[in-house]
Design brief:
Blueprint: E1 5-10, H1 14-24, E2 30-36, H2 44-47, H3 54-57, H4 60-67, E3 72-76, H5 86-92, E4 95-98, E5 104-105, E6 118-120, H6 121-128, E7 145-149, H7 153-163, H8 166-169, H9 176-184, E8 189-193, H10 205-211, E9 217-221, H11 234-247, E10 256-261, E11 264-270, E12 277-287, E13 293-305, E14 308-311, E15 315-316, E16 338-340, E17 343-345, H12 348-351, H13 359-376, H14 388-394, E18 399-400, H15 402-416, H16 429-436, E19 441-442
Parallel strand pairs: 1-2, 1-4, 2-3, 4-17, 6-14, 7-8, 7-14, 8-10, 9-10
Antiparallel strand pairs: 5-15, 11-12, 12-13, 16-17, 18-19
Helix pairs in contact: 1-13, 15-16
The chain binds flavin-adenine dinucleotide.
Flavin-adenine dinucleotide binds next to helix 1, strand 2 and helix 7.
Amino acid sequence: MSEPLRVAVVGSGPAGFYAAGALLSADLPVEVDMVERLPTPWGLVRLGVAPDHPNIKAVSRAFERIAAQPGFRFFGNVELGRDVTAEELARLYDAVVYAVGAQTDRRLGIPGEDLPGSWAATEFVAWYNGHPDYQSLPFDLNTERAVVVGAGNVALDVARMLALSPEELAPTDTTDAAIAAIAESPLREIVVLARRGPAQAAFTTPELKEMGELADADVVVDPADLEGAVGTDTNSERNLEVLREYAGRAPAGRGRAVVFRFCVSPVAIRGTDRVEEIEIVHNELVADEGGNVRAVATDRRETIPCGLVFRSVGYRGVPVPGVPFDDAGGVIPNDRGRVAPGLYVAGWIKRGPTGVIGTNKKDATETVELLLEDARAGLLARESDERLESLLQERGLEVVAYAGWEAIDRNERARGEPLGRPRVKLCSWEELLDAARGVGVSR
Ligand SMILES: Cc1cc2nc3c(=O)[nH]c(=O)nc-3n(C[C@H](O)[C@H](O)[C@H](O)COP(=O)(O)OP(=O)(O)OC[C@H]3O[C@@H](n4cnc5c(N)ncnc54)[C@H](O)[C@@H]3O)c2cc1C
């Protein structure tokens, strides 16, 4: 085939970039147009991964190398469903790969969940990372106790960010508003609630260990919570070792404390005008025939006074207009990434919100293999030779091309440099588009 295969990748997170990388290194000529609703690429690597984990964010260098390959183009500030439809992409491209991630969170489904002071971890994470859609959220950290519901790494991120000292936050790219709010907060205690026991928690050991190494926060674990807990795999065995070490520590009187509570679930959040307390129920662990350990509520309840609640019980995909959706699973139904010849998925919208960044590489590669198989079998054909840029131009849309993103990137790094920070993010749509204007924006 001499005419390059034209592929649109929607979403510029890890899954989108790994899909683009696999496509551009295929043994047939391929052009990739990446469509992203934000003016900035990298998805949750920029806007999810905790700012005090710069080494993890450094994976973006691999994405930069992919973007530098011939055949790659970036269409930032273009939202599928608003600016262009799935039908239009299907007409303009031989194949479309949806890598739009999981854009919302799971709810607790308990009374009081919508009280001011009760937040989704998604919102807090997007706020402290400078996502332009979340900067006006009124985070008020003026309370002595916050409760984080969930036993995964995102819950740990939220708890740790709240517990970091100003000195720990200063060299990061956390937004200035978030640094100020965390530093000025009178928070004394951050309580992490896990539905099941310590052996079932989804934390990974390095992240759990990090909690015990914070400059100004103690970590508190009740030894009674660990009694009888037995690891079921290497991760849970190592987690138990770390938790046992925590349980043996005497509080060192640091400014804040992160308190782990196991086998408890929230049943209600209460307060007059805002969150004042959370009621929890103690659970018993019951193993079913398949060996799965379930949490079963007892009649023992307890109330914890607090001014903030963050729910971190999972992310969830949202439907892409014009593309099939499995509402129960929160994913686009697919077989190893193929929805139908010409229509593919990768990343969290394909398999659900699990796994680390690297998991998306294998996942996207699997998808691209099927796409290339369909191309070789002659199953892919676009209806039109019209180019996306002319369609967007006709609509008067302002596209941020890759050079526009590079201008944003330079601007942010330049602002960060004198402060010893990797970058100071531009966090409003106006600032982002202004920085891109005149360089990479075409109208
Ligand atoms: C808070 C948090 C912290 C994490 N920390 C780590 C960590 O430390 N280490 C680690 O390995 N993993 C971490 N992960 C997991 C990792 O971020 C994910 O595995 C990965 O980002 C999923 O990739 P994705 O490409 O499927 O989705 P995303 O990264 O979410 O990318 C999806 C992209 O699609 C875009 N998009 C969505 N809808 C549209 C639309 N309609 N039109 C155009 N574009 C659209 C979005 O703007 C986004 O850029 C973390 C996840 C979270 C939530």
